[in-house]
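$ ./design --mode recover --in tokens.txt
reading tokens...
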């Protein structure tokens, strides 16, 4: 059995990134506050396989049960969580080149979910054309103000010269996957 994360009572952490395990990592690093929840997707663009997910409590769709045959006790409908528009996307460019871990070279990957604090952190060193940049991300959903979320992104140029741009926005073209 392959171990994806280190074992710790209050921390889910890994220094490994395997694209084939991306959806599992997203599931295991999901955060929520009882009002909204979101999968552990990357903040920046990621062109590889992933399952985007931001969900709001109480927002659902009554989907007809598909069992192939009717059986006593099965409901006619079940509540399907609807994927809400995402406030997560931050398009990041280094010297006009998009940061995308499916396409770019990087090293020193780290992903952790502090279960005690509810803080999701991630960092890596982007390796571009004659430039290296450390990116650090933090994400938190507030329990005090249920509608509040924090995304903190820090970029540190380690070598070379870099112009770094951040373009944050909303992604409304979301869909559920059945």
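writing sequence...
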């Amino acid at each position: 059995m392959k171990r994806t994360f280190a074992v710790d009572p209050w921390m889910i952490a890994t220094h490994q990134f395997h694209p084939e395990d991306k959806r599992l990592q997203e599931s295991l690093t999901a955060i929520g506050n009882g009002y909204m929840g979101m999968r552990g997707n990357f903040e920046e663009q990621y062109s590889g396989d992933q399952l985007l997910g931001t969900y709001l409590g109480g927002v659902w769709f009554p989907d007809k049960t598909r069992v192939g045959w009717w059986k006593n006790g099965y409901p006619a409908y079940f509540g399907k969580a609807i994927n809400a528009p995402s406030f997560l996307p931050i398009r990041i460019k280094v010297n006009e080149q998009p940061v995308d871990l499916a396409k770019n070279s990087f090293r020193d990957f780290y992903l952790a979910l502090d279960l005690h604090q509810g803080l999701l952190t991630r960092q890596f060193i982007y390796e571009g054309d004659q430039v290296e940049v450390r990116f650090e991300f933090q994400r938190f959903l507030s329990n005090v103000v249920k509608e509040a979320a924090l995304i903190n992104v820090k970029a540190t140029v380690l070598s070379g010269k870099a112009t770094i741009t951040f373009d944050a926005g909303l992604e409304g073209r979301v869909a559920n996957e059945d």
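exit 0
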